[in-house]
Structure formats: C-alpha cells, structure tokens
C-alpha cells in the first residue's frame, strides 16, 4: 500500500511539475512577446516618421505654372558657370517631373560648404532656360537665398548659402 501511495504521490508530483513547467513556459513566452511588442513600438516613431536618414539639401518648388516639362535643380559650389552653364558647371543636377504643380529636389550626402541653387521649369525639355529675342526668360526660373534677376542673372554670391552638412530645407519660388 505504501508503494502504491508513494507511486501515486510521485505521479501527482510529476503532474504538478509538468503543469508548473507549462505555466512557467507560457508566462515566459508571453513576457518575450510583450517585450518584443514594446521594443517594436518604441522604435516605430523613429522608423515611420523619419523623413530621410541621409542629411542633405531639400528644395521645395511650389506653385509651378503647369505640369508640362520638368524641373531642373542645379547645385553650384563655385561662381564658375553660375547659373547659365549648369550642365557643364553645376556640382549636382536633378531633373524631376512636376506633380500637382510642385516638385521637390533632394541633394544627399553633400559636404559642408557654400553653395548656390538655380532652378528652371524646362517646359519643352530642351535642357536650357529659353528666352525671347530680348534675352528675357520665357520659362520659369528661381534662385536660392531669394536672389532675383534684374537686368541679368544674379551672382553666385547673391544666391549663395552656407550648408553645415545637416538637413536643410529650402523653398524656391519660380518667376515667370
């Protein structure tokens, strides 16, 4: 009888141990799942709301006259060729389609320095700013730092800005 009771107690003990082990595994599993959710949602805002992981110069061009053609953004690091010779002299050039009368050019991984931007609305996609017989532009154009063209294009110095290597947001409005 004692052997039978001992066997019964051993079975109960084994059942209790198995049940306890299952409860512990289950609660540990829940802890790991909960920890995973906490870690995932802690990093979610950084992933979802980050605009760009690469610092750069981001140029918004709002209120474009129409969506015909492209926008050409030319980044210059020196006065050489600014702004007329952008195909030969610009450090970086971005050609982008116009969407809903606006465009955005982003120059990434640009080293710190002094730069100037020239933007044209190349309506006929010929790669240049077209002018009439008097030399007055017939397509939209704009420059950084609010530089304006009077009797000729502004100088590099008038359009220049300092860039520190971080994210820089600029807005350039075109003149027609």
UniProtKB/TrEMBL annotation:
Name of the protein this chain belongs to: DUF2141 domain-containing protein
Species annotation: Marinobacter halophilus
Pfam family membership, one: DUF2141
InterPro entries, sorted: DUF2141 (IPR018673)
């Amino acid at each position: 009888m004692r052997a039978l009771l001992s066997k019964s107690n051993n079975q109960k003990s084994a059942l209790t141990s198995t049940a306890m082990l299952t409860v512990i595994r289950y609660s540990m599993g829940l802890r790991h799942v909960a920890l995973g959710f906490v870690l995932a949602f802690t990093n979610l805002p950084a992933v979802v709301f980050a605009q760009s992981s690469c610092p750069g110069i981001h140029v918004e061009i709002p209120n474009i006259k129409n969506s015909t053609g492209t926008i050409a953004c030319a980044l210059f690091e020196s006065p050489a060729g600014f702004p007329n010779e952008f195909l030969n002299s610009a450090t970086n050039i971005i050609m982008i389609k116009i969407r809903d009368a606006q465009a955005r050019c982003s120059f990434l991984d640009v080293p710190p320095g002094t730069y100037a931007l020239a933007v044209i609305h190349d309506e006929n996609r010929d790669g240049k700013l077209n002018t009439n017989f008097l030399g007055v532009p017939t397509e939209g154009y704009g420059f950084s730092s609010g530089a304006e063209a009077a009797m000729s294009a502004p100088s590099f110095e008038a359009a220049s800005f300092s860039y520190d290597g971080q994210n820089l947001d600029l807005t350039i409005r075109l003149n027609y």
